[in-house]
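Field guide to reading this record: the first block holds the primary sequence, the second block holds the structure written as discrete tokens, and the final block holds curator observations. Each block starts with its own label. This record concerns HTH hxlR-type domain-containing protein, catalogued under organism Corallococcus coralloides.

BLOCK 1 — SEQUENCE
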Amino acid sequence: MLIQQLRQLEQDGIVARIVHAQVPPKVEYHLTDWGQSLCPALDELLTWAAKRPLLKREGEASKA
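BLOCK 2 — STRUCTURE
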């Protein structure tokens, strides 16, 4: 599942994949410039999400 996500991000130009010819195999991923350009938007999304009140778990008694 993770490899599928990484491959899709690579196809979208968000990450770059570097394969090292060695044993055992070694693969590195890093953000491209395009991927780096997403950071401000992701930071804003995290800030927004942190402000959201926690949802109660299903079946948890309400505190009144």
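BLOCK 3 — OBSERVATIONS
The chain has three helices and two strands.
The mean pLDDT is 90.
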